[in-house]
Amino acid sequence: xxxxxQYREQIKLVFPGAxxxxxxxxxxxxxxxxxxxxWARVQELRGSQMLTPGKEISSKVYKITSRxxxxxxxxxxxxxxxxxxxILSATSDERRTEVTYYCQHGQL
Length: 108
Fold this sequence. Notes:
Blueprint: E1 9-15, E2 19-21, E3 27-29, E4 34-52, E5 55-67, E6 77-80, E7 83-92, E8 98-106
């Protein structure tokens, strides 16, 4: 089991907001996404770089771990130090004590 002192960074989980029908078979978001502040352990894993015609695009990948809550697995993004991170994957350990996110900032 993880010790509480391991979670030293505050992050925001971003959940999808409610949506309404657009009248032609699709759905539009009707409210801003819900945000929840939690404590987590944040580790920057590596930097990725890719060359496209005329420019270089870089990306940072993070491993973020927090205490387990079922609702945390439904988050669509994270905010850390004012930057929005895209969640690449979210998994829990077999004992359901921690949630681990792999997130990306930048483009890949």
